[in-house]
Design brief:
mainly alpha; 96% helix; CsbD-like domain-containing protein
Length: 176
């Protein structure tokens, strides 16, 4: 709690005590206007206390939202980097396997008939295409995760802004 908020809380407590004292003094002395003034002062102190509490809650929610956004962004970046690394590894593996299988197919073709060579080439190409589709799917998942993180960040920022607006409205109402 900042010094300003602590000062506001102390001021509210003192106003509440002063209002209670006025109310009691008015009741003892039979002065209804003093009783009423004391009750009004207590009500104002309660409103101020509620506004300070709402403002503190809004600030805590904003800080929590900022931290959640930061964590979500970090997680999204980590997931994106992991997916990118995995996709690159898969692409390298695909290329290595493609080269290996083509070399094998060429050796088989030299030793065997043309039909077996064609079958090996088709199998190598199909495997490479499958791995490329898998790598593309991993890259797509990384993009989707980043978009979800951005949407979550926007939602949390909207919630924080709404909480700040509510606190401002309560402060404005209290100051009236």
């Amino acid at each position: 709690m900042s010094n300003d908020k602590a000062a506001q809380a102390r001021e509210g407590l003192l106003d509440n005590v002063a209002g209670k004292a006025k109310e009691m003094a008015g009741a003892v002395s039979g002065k209804d206007d003093l009783v009423e003034e004391g009750q009004l002062q207590q009500a104002e102190a309660r409103k101020r206390k509620a506004a300070v509490a709402e403002e503190a809650i809004a600030e805590a929610k904003r800080e929590e939202a900022v931290e959640e956004v930061r964590e979500t962004s970090q997680e999204a970046a980590q997931q994106k980097n992991a997916a990118r690394t995995e996709a690159q590894r898969e692409e390298s593996e695909i290329e290595r396997q493609r080269q290996s299988e083509r070399a094998s197919a060429a050796q088989v073709a030299e030793r065997e008939e043309a039909a077996r060579k064609a079958a090996a080439e088709r199998e190598a190409d199909q495997l490479a295409e499958t791995r490329q589709r898998e790598a593309a799917a991993l890259a797509s998942d990384a993009t989707s995760t980043e978009q979800q993180a951005a949407a979550e960040r926007a939602r949390l920022e909207r919630e924080a802004a709404a909480a700040e607006q509510q606190a401002a409205a309560l402060r404005a109402q209290t100051e009236k």
